[in-house]
Amino acid sequence: MPTPKQTPITLSENDRAMRHPTDLDDHAQNVPIPTLERLANYLRVLIELSEAGVQTVSSANIEYYSGISAAQFRKDLTYFGKDFGKPGVGYSVQELLERIERILKIEHEQPILLVGAGNLGSALVGYPNFEARHFRIAAVFDNNFAKIGRHLWDLEILDFAHLNTVNALIKAKIAIIAVPASAAQQVADELVEAGITAILNFAPSAVRVPAHCHVRNVSFLQELAVLSYHLAEGGEPDGGDPLPSPSSPVDSRDPLNDPISRQNPLKQLEKLTTAPTSRALKRPLEPLSTNKVSAKGAL
Questions:
Q1: What does the pLDDT look like over 89-120, one tens digit per residue?
Q2: Is this model's pTM higher than 0.85 or not?
Q3: Which of 7, 188, 221, 227 has the most CB atoms lying inside 10 A of its own CB?
């Protein structure tokens, strides 16, 4: 008796079928870059709230601590599904944190290559929060023979000529360029050849990469020039939507009602004041109001 014909299931389809339903929307296509940038901002806030012992948060709370409007926050989440949060309750800090980590694909450790062992490279290697956020500088390279073989913090500086051999073992996909402008393009080319597909470029010049690669350029001079312009113009700060004052009605489930945070909310959340791009944190943090709002406003 012939067996019924079955449609073969590919590995990718089978893997998708085994995934949690809420994961299916976590890799939406064509998400705008500004949305991804805001997700990283939300993640920073959620990490700090989690470390302060806060368990539940509302969109109004996210607005207060991130400087991004509650409406924009909710809109950004809709790119990845409609099952975020519960009306009248809010968002679980830990669940939302883990969900955004999956969206940004940083739930697992990401090894990073650093090219340039100068002052900036030294500061980056010494930055304490990389590993706490699942990033790890796995190798540092330079072409200065006076530096090769010496240690930068706990990493030995390697010869840039050995880039391909080293990354064949590390299998990093992300690299940081911290070299002079004159060397940036050559470094980028060799990184791509070694298997790197994402580059954070601190060199004061743009680099060109193939279409399958991604580059984020960080220019201190560009940012300072923009700030200088705003100072000269004397106009209104370009910080986004106005924030609610601490006396504005927000969710009665205020994260600062947490017993630990209530003891000293400024101390528990003082790290939030270190964010350079958040308008919300240009003033000292103050306890949020505990005025009650309707269940509809809790998300």
A1: 899 999 999 999 999 888 888 999 999 999 99
A2: no
A3: 188
Q: Are strands 174-177 and 155-159 parallel, antiparallel or unpaired?
A: unpaired
Domain shared by 77 and 31, yes or no: yes
User: Residues 214, 273: one domain?
Assistant: no
Q: What is the pLDDT of residues 124-151, one digit of tens each?
A: 999 887 876 789 999 999 999 999 999 9
Tokens describing residue 147: 């530096």
